[in-house]
Hints:
Layout: E1 3-7, E2 10-13, E3 18-25, E4 33-39, E5 46-51, E6 58-60, E7 68-73, E8 78-83, E9 92-99, E10 112-113, E11 117-122
Parallel strand pairs: 2-11
Antiparallel strand pairs: 1-3, 3-8, 4-5, 4-9, 5-6, 7-8, 9-10, 9-11
Amino acid sequence: QVQLVESGGGLVQAGGSLRLSCAASGRTFSRYATGWFRQAPGKEREFVAVISWNAGTTSYADSVKGRFTISRDNAKNAVYLQMNSLKPEDTAVYYCAADQWLLLPPRTDYDYWGQGTQVTVSS
């Protein structure tokens, strides 16, 4: 069993930065691939980024490539999403999710999900 808790969301002006954290409980989290997803009001949940269990593989949505960076610290049972050059269209609830498999091409059928953290980017 893995439990995920996101933090680091907030209100930021366009062009600013935020760093989201996903804290995990569970001894086996270090063996799980972890993804970040987001959902804006009235829209479907969409893939943002994913990282393999050993950080050997990362993948990003085209909309965030070059602006967002996913990383992990298995010693701390944590995954991070550094978001730079934020745009109003990045406004959404951001979720982290974990799965024993690296789900590429991106899918949403992850084993475990967090509750989400709100990111709001003002213009």
